[in-house]
Amino acid sequence: MSADQILQYLLSGITTGSVYAVVGIGFNIIYSSTGIINFAQGEFLMLGGMISVSLAPHMPLAAAIAIAVVATGLVGVALQLVFISWLKNPAILRVIIITIGLSILVREASLHIWDEKVRALPFWTGSETSSLAVLGAHISPQVLWVLAASALMVGALTLFFRFTITGRAMRACASNATAARLCGIRTSTLVTLSFFIAAAMGALAGCAVSPLTQTQYDMGTSLAVKGFTCAVLGGLGNVTAAVAAGLLVGVLEAASISILPLAYKDVVALAIMLAILFFRPEGLFGGRRAALAGVR
Amino acid sequence: MKRYLPVLALAVLAIGVQLAVTALKAEYLLTQLTMSAYYTMVTLGLCLLMGYAGQVSLGHAGFFAIGGYTTAVLSTAGTAAIGFAPWLSLPAGVAASAVIALVIGLPVLKLRGHYLAMATLAFGFIVSRVILGTSLLGQADGISDVPAVRLFAGLALTGRRSLRVQNYYLAWALVALGLLLAVNLLGSRVGRALRAIHGNEEAAAAMGVDVGRYKLAVFVLSAVYAGVGGACLVHFNGGIGPGEAGVMKSVRYVALVAAGGMGSPAGTVAVSAALTFLSLRGAFGLYDDAVFGALLVAIMLFAPEGLFGLVPARRRK
Known about the structure:
The structure holds 2 protein chains of 2 kinds.
Chain A (H helix, E strand, L loop, with lengths): L2 H32 L6 H15 L5 H24 L7 H23 L17 E3 L2 E3 L1 H23 L1 H11 L1 H6 L4 H27 L6 H15 L6 H19 L5 H15 L8 H7 L2
Antiparallel strand pairs in A: 1-2
Chain B lengths: L4 H19 L5 H24 L7 H23 L6 H20 L4 H21 L15 E2 L5 E2 L6 H24 L1 H11 L1 H6 L4 H27 L9 H14 L4 H16 L7 H15 L7 H7 L1
Antiparallel strand pairs in B: 1-2
Helix pairs in contact in B: 1-6, 2-6, 2-9, 2-10, 2-11, 3-4, 3-5, 3-9, 4-9, 6-7, 10-11, 10-12
C-alpha cells in the first residue's frame, strides 16, 4: 500500500467515523439523562437527510438543512413525550423494545412518505466531480463539510455542557437525577431537551453525509449499531470520548476494505463492538461506573 | 394434567383447522399454515429465553438462518462431495445453530440490558452481512432448488402438493412437541431456577442456582428451536434467501413473543401462529413491517404482560 492510499483510507475513515461519532454522542446524551439507549438514534440521520432532500429544490440549501434539523429535533421530542415520558420506572427490556418499535415505525413512515429510492442532497459546495488535493490525496469538499459540521457540534456541545446553566443542569441530572430535582431542576424538561439535541445533531450529520453516502429509508439500523459501537468504545455516558472512538472505528472500517471483501465492511465495526463488550465493557477511556450499569 | 392442556388444545385446533380447510376446499391455505408453524418454532424458543431467563435476543433470525443455510448448502452442494445420507443435513443444520449459540452465548450472556440487546443485534447483523458477502451462500440471491428430505414411511419434508396435508401435520406436530418440551421444562426444577433468575439474578445465585449455566442452556435451547424451524422450512419452501436473517425478522420474533406474553409459551404459539399466517397471506399489505412495529410499541406501552395478560388483570379487579 502506498502512502497516498493510506492517506486516502485515513481520510475516508475519518469522514465516516465522524458521522458514527455523532450518532454515538446522540446515544450518550439520551443515555446520560435517562438511562435509556434509544435504538431509534440512526433514524434521526435518515430523517434529516430525507427532509432536507425534499425541501432543497424549493429553497436555499442552508434553509432546507436548518428546517430539517429543527423538524427532526421536534420528531425526537414528540417520540419522547408521546411514548416514553409517562412510563414510571419502566424495566430496561421494556424501553429497549419500545425504542426498537419506534425505529421501525419511523422507518416505515418514511418508506411510505418517500418510497425506497436512494436520494442525495446536492453537494454543499461544488459538485461530485470537484475535488481538493490534500497532501497528494483527492477528497471531495463535502468531506470537509462533514468534518466541520461534526467538529462544530462537538465543540458547541462541550461549551453548552460546561458553560450554560441548562447544560450544567443536564450534567447534574445525569449524575444524580434525584439530587438535581432537589436543587429545583426540572428534570423532565431536560430529558425532553436531550431528545431534541440528540435528534437535531443526528439530522445535521444526516444532511452532511447525504451527498457522499446517500440517504435511504432503511439506513438507520446499521448507523445505530455503529454509533452504539462508538458510544461503548468511548465508555457509555462519556460524551466526548465517543469522538475518538468514532474516528477509530471509521478508520479501521476503511482500512478493512483493502483486506476484506467490501461486503464484510459492516462486520468489522460490529466485531469491534462485540470484542469491546466482552473484554472491556467500560470502554477504552471509560471508568468503572458505566461498566457496572451493564455488566457484572 | 392442567399443564398439558395447551398441548392438547393445540393438537385439537390443528386437526380442526385441517378438517375445516379441507371441507371448504381451501387446502392452499395449508402451505402458509405450515410455514407459520416453522416460524412459530422460533418464537417458542425465544419465549423461553425472554420470558423465563429474562434475556432479550435481537438476533434470533440469525439462528434461524444458520439452521436453514447449513442444511441448504449441505443438501445442494454438499451431498455430492461428502456423500452422506441426505436427511443428515437437517440435524447438521440444527447442530450448527446450537454450536454457534454456545460459542456466542458464553461471552454474550455475561452482558445485561442494553449491552445484551446490542450484542445480539450485532450478531444478527453479522450473520446477515456474511450471508450477503459469501458466494457459497448465494449472496443476495439466496439458495434455491433445495431438495426434499425423505423421512420415514413415505413421508417427506417438501412443498409438493400431494404431501401438503402430511407436511402440515408434521410441522404442527413439531410445534406441539416443542410446546410439550417447554411446559415440561418450565414445570421442573429447571423452570423454577429460570424464574428465579428472571426475578432477581443475585438472589437466584445466592440460593445456589448456577445462573450462568442456566442462561447459557436456555440460550442454546432457544437457538435449537430456531434452527429446527429454519432447517425444516428450507426444505418445505425449497430455498432460502438472505431476508430470513434480516434484523427486521429478529425484531418481528421479539414482537410476537411480547404480544403472546413473555411468560406464556401457549400464548406465544397462539399469537405467533395467527399473526404470521396473516402476514404470509399478505393481510397487512404494504404495512407488514409497520404492523409489527406498532404491535411492539403498543404491547410494551399498554400490556407488557402480553395480550393474554390483559384478561386476568381485569378479572382480578
